């Protein structure tokens, strides 16, 4: 199988977008990276079925999405962190407020239904049109628009954003809590 240099470049250029989508779906950087790797392996093995000149981005995102759902079905139930060992590792105060905001966003994203999260990530974060996102998810454009709208509304509620121009970053309470945590270590 021969892959053109242009197609290879397109594939490489799409890796950061694939990674962002994968991490958002998986809720974890390591699992997201594994998901991207598996997606690239499957894509490379199946390049013979890809028609050059069609939408490579949508094709790759569809493979990634399908792989994610396949892994979720295989995984079944996740084991709880009863003794808190894993949670204790995650309880490290970030060095920058933007990291706190990003963590808050990731947690909020994990609280919204998977179909809404997926639609929001495809449209708002990955830059797909509603039509492209509908093709990837295998549903109607109106369904994607509805999911994105519900996801945005729910995220605003979870993150307690009262208006679209709300500032993120440290407030007095956050600074006091973070300062107290560092003082006790």
Automatic annotation (TrEMBL):
Transcription found in the keyword field: yes
Keyword annotations from UniProtKB, A to Z: Sigma factor, Transcription, Transcription regulation
One example of a Gene Ontology biological process annotation: DNA-templated transcription initiation
Gene3D superfamilies named among the record's database cross-references: 1.10.1740.10, Winged helix-like DNA-binding domain superfamily/Winged helix DNA-binding domain
One Gene Ontology term of the molecular function aspect: sigma factor activity
Keyword hit for Transcription: yes
Family, similarity comment: Belongs to the sigma-70 factor family. ECF subfamily.
Protein name: RNA polymerase sigma-70 factor, ECF subfamily
Upper lineage: Bacteria, Pseudomonadati, Pseudomonadota, Alphaproteobacteria, Hyphomicrobiales
């Amino acid at each position: 199988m021969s892959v053109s240099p242009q197609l290879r470049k397109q594939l490489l250029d799409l890796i950061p977008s694939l990674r962002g989508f994968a991490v958002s779906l998986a809720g974890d950087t390591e699992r997201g990276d594994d998901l991207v790797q598996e997606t690239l392996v499957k894509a490379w093995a199946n390049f013979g079925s890809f028609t050059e000149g069609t939408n490579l981005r949508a094709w790759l995102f569809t493979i990634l999405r399908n792989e994610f759902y396949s892994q979720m079905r295989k995984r079944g139930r996740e084991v709880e962190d009863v003794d808190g060992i894993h949670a204790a590792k995650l309880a490290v105060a970030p060095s920058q407020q933007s990291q706190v905001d990003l963590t808050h966003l990731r947690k909020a994203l994990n609280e919204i239904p998977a179909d809404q999260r997926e639609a929001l990530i495809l449209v708002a974060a990955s830059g797909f049109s509603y039509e492209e996102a509908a093709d990837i998810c295998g549903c109607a454009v109106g369904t994607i628009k509805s999911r994105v709208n519900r996801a945005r509304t729910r995220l605003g509620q979870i993150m307690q954003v009262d208006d679209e121009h709300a500032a993120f970053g440290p407030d007095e309470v956050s600074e006091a809590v973070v300062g107290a945590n560092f003082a006790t270590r």
